[in-house]
Structure formats: structure tokens, C-alpha cells
């Protein structure tokens, strides 16, 4: 295979089940991904969402590491704006000390929820003292690398413990600015194609990453795979995405127009813009999906794909890993 293949899970909670069942399924997915040779397995961060159990990726990563043996486990991603860069570095250095060489630190710029949860997460902070995202990411990078600008040993600040192998570092984004920021720090970059899959945007952003010296480009894609093309087309998916831009605030992506309007209401915005995005959704049989991944790999120079499964049936996610693995083995042969 000419590219890596990995899996993203949000621990969805289905009707008539609880969070415990959703999390057991996440563990089973990670183990199946490991068995079939996937490169990494990531979990997301979402807040105040009754249908998702993945509110704290750091906690879930630790459990998944203990339930697997080889596959890299990571965050897709930690929403850095809510936290101290120092504390995030401590968390992931500890994880990397528990499972050296298997921990991925993926960082996102989005809030991972609507304004009500953001206010709850940031309520103890003085907003006038909060650093910019770029500054937070630079601080996090220094702590993970074990670097410090202190002029005397007494003032040195380090994020202990010091793992034998530092966490692998990824910045998640969908803009040339994010791509260039990742490259400037020597981080891998993940383009969120499962949110905005417009081909020109993907091409321009990944080209900006490479031009800025970036060395490892990952493309997140939504994949709907079944035994045949017809069966894949018949599957129900949650594939719509909307971009909300409010005056004087952060732009975010949400899953429905109702969520977009609720974001505006909670933010108290008088001026806003909502536009529907076109996520990159690949549908078809294992052979069809593999052929499209190959096309995108050659077109954009993608080193790895992170697969998000938008099918609402959680049991299908387990089957999707099998389908993708079968197609990858056939390609390798």
C-alpha cells in the first residue's frame, strides 16, 4: 500500500443505549483496527452532546492504549483553546511514558461545541490574558520538545514526566494558514476533508503545507463502504456540514442548519453568515473506495488517510474496517 490508513471514532451513542455501550464499541473498533493493520486510531472531543461519548480524549486514549498492543492511539483532536498548553503537554507526556511510541497528539482549533459549553470550559479564564491559538501551539510544542526559554535553572519549567519518545504531533485544520503553522513547527498536518472536501481547497491547503516545508500530510475523509456500490449508496449517512461565521467571533463547522442557528443564538450574534459545506464522502464497494483513495493520494500527495464513518449504524463501523482492510491487502498483493 502506498499510503497509511487510520480510523477516527466519535463514540456515537445510539438510540436505546448508554454511553457505556458506545465506549465498548470504541474499544472493539480500536482492537479491530489494530488487528487489520491500521496505522492509528483516533478519538474526538465534543462537548455538551448527548449523542457522543467522547468529551475527554485524553482519558479515553489511556484506556485504549491499555486495551491494545501496537496501534498508535491519539486525539483527533484536543481543542486547545479551552486549556493550558502546559497541562495538555503534561497529559500527553504521561500517556507517552505509559506507552512509548504509540501516542499521537492531534490539536484542533475549533471549540468542539456550541458557545454554552465554551463558556463553561473557559469560565475561570480572564479572556484578556488568553494567548492566541498560534502562541498556545508554540508553547505546547516547546513543552512537548522539552525546551524552555528560562535563563536560570531555578526558573526552568518542564512538562514532566519526560517520555522516552515524544508524542507524535498533528495539527488539524482546513486552511492554508493552519497548514503553514503546522509546517513552521515541524508538525504533521491533517486536512479536515470530512468537513470541507472541495477539491480546490484541499489542493491549495496541502500545497501550502508542502511549500512551507511540511513533510507529512494526512487527509481526513468520510467513507461509506459496503459489499457493493449499490449497497453503499443505500446506506443512511449523516453527511451535511454547515459553516457559521459570526461578526467578531470564531467561525465553526456544525452538522445541521438548526445547530448553526443555535450557535448564533447562544453567541448572541446580530450579524452572521451560514453556508453549507461539501464534505469529502467516498461511497462504494471496497474496490471503489480504494481506487478513489489512490486517486486522491496521487492527486494531492497524501501520505495517510484518516477515515471517518458517517453511517449512523455503529455495528457498520466494525464492518467498514474489515472492508477497507480487505481492499488494502488486495492492493498490496
Describe the structure.
This protein is an alpha/beta fold and 333 residues long. 41% of the residues lie in helices and 20% in strands. It has helices at 19-35, 57-67, 85-98, 115-122, 133-145, 176-185, 199-211, 229-234, 257-267, 286-300, 314-332, and strands at 4-9, 40-43, 72-75, 78-79, 103-108, 168-173, 188-192, 217-225, 241-246, 252-254, 272-277, 281-284, 304-308. The strands form 2 sheets. Strands 1-2-3-5-6-7-8-13 form an 8-stranded parallel beta barrel, surrounded by 7 helices. Strands 10-9-11 form a 3-stranded antiparallel beta sheet, covered by helices on one side. Strand 2 (40-43), helix 2 (57-67) and strand 3 form a beta-alpha-beta unit. The longest helix has 19 residues, at 314-332.
